[in-house]
Amino acid sequence: MTSDLEMAPCEPSVVVRAQMFGGARRDGDTSGPRALMLAVLEDAVRCIEEGRWRSHFRARRLAAEAEAWMRCERREWPFSFVNICEVLGFDVDAMRAHLLTSPRMHQLLPASVRAAGT
To answer: How far apart are CA 80 and CA 97, in angstroms?
Structure first.
């Protein structure tokens, strides 16, 4: 059996609120799967933007993949464009139209998406 004296170094003397939640925000908009979905959407936007303005093969390939992902209607994948938009509360067709036609797509992302990325 271990004595209280032996266990003392393992026990925190004070527990602050941030330690209880592992430092993650729990407001529903920027934590867990929603935060990951926002990051996936933002990364796709960056890939397309960079592919439009760069001549590097890798940038163009990533842009083509991101554009194909945005155009895909499949719902089987948890992180498909359609599922991400629905979970985040965005109109899929409107979001797709804005993102795929704008020369500077990042500026057209809803403020909640831009703010969550910072």
So the answer is: 16
Q: Has residue 77 got a pLDDT over 80?
A: yes
Q: Which two tokens stand for residue 18?
A: 């941030």
Radius of gyration of the CA atoms of the chain, in A: 21
Rounded distance between C-alpha atoms, residue 30 and residue 32, angstroms = 7
pTM higher than 0.70: no
Per-chain mean pLDDT for the chain: 75
Dist CA 116 CA 108 (whole Å): 14
Quick check: 105 and 48 in contact, CB under 8 A? yes
Calculate mean pLDDT across residues 19-40.
66
**Contact criterion met (CB below 8 Å) for 112 and 85:** no
According to DSSP, residue 71 is labeled: H
- Residue 62: which of 71, 75, 52, 76 has the closest Cα? 52
